[in-house]
């Protein structure tokens, strides 16, 4: 059996993991105010509304496909539409909360707390809408409902992925700390 030697601390002596975590980061240099401003200019915050819009478009497509494939079964049509609504409505409310927090631009801890609370509200509303489906719809076609729900949820991930690919392809301007003349 092999023995793993403890990691050496910056002082050269071996120590525990807790001591290594408390050691100062070698090579870490905080940004100056000018560098931070350059970084913010190169990395503007993203609006959540394009993602919500992509979800709406994907949801409409799912409803149209459900309408086309349902062969006149009204339960399938309404179930797909309700599945889309169960994913999209909480996303709209969450996007509104995020957009409002972006305008306020409070400290990072408050923004993180608002994000966590907003996500909790979004999950609770989604679960409530899914549990209410049998009471809202006269007849639930669960496969159609879940299909509309999944298509709408996956559209958000695809929109975020596509947005990140587009942002990565854009030129960022001057690098942090570079001299422009």
Classification by helices and strands: mainly alpha
How are helices and strands ordered from N to C? HHHHHH
**What distance separates the N and C termini?**
60 Å
Strand content: under 5%
Query: What would you call the quaternary organization?
Result: single chain
Give the overall pLDDT as a whole number: 82
Radius of gyration: 24 Å
- Overall outline: elongated
Low-confidence stretches: 174-181
What is the number of helical segments per DSSP (H or I, 4+ residues)? 6
Largest sheet: none
Number of DSSP-assigned strands: 0
Helix content: 55-70%
Give the SSE map.
Elements (H helix, E strand, L loop, with lengths): L16 H6 L10 H10 L6 H21 L4 H31 L3 H29 L5 H28 L12
Helix pairs in contact: 3-4, 3-6, 4-5, 4-6
Keywords:
single chain, 181 residues, mainly alpha, disordered C terminus, elongated
Structural description of this entry:
The longest helix is centred in the middle third of the chain and has 31 residues, at 74-104. The model is unreliable at 174-181 (pLDDT under 50). The protein is an all-alpha fold and 181 residues long. 69% of the residues lie in helices and 0% in strands. The chain is elongated. It has six helices and no strands. The relative contact order is 0.15.
């Amino acid at each position: 059996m092999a023995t793993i030697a403890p990691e050496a601390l910056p002082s050269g002596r071996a120590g525990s993991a807790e001591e290594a975590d408390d050691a100062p980061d070698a090579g870490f240099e905080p940004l100056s105010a000018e560098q931070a401003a350059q970084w913010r200019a190169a990395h503007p915050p993203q609006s959540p509304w394009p993602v919500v819009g992509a979800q709406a478009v994907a949801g409409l497509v799912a409803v149209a496909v459900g309408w086309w494939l349902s062969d006149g079964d009204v339960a399938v049509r309404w179930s797909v539409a309700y599945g889309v609504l169960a994913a999209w409505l909480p996303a709209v409310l969450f996007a509104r909360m995020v957009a409002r927090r972006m305008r306020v631009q409070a400290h990072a801890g408050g923004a993180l707390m608002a994000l966590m609370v907003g996500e909790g509200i979004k999950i609770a509303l989604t679960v409530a809408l899914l549990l209410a489906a049998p009471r809202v719809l006269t007849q639930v076609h669960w496969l159609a409902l879940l299909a509309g729900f999944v298509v709408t949820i996956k559209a958000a991930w695809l929109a975020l992925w596509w947005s990140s690919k587009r942002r990565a392809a854009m030129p960022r301007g001057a690098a942090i700390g570079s001299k422009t003349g």
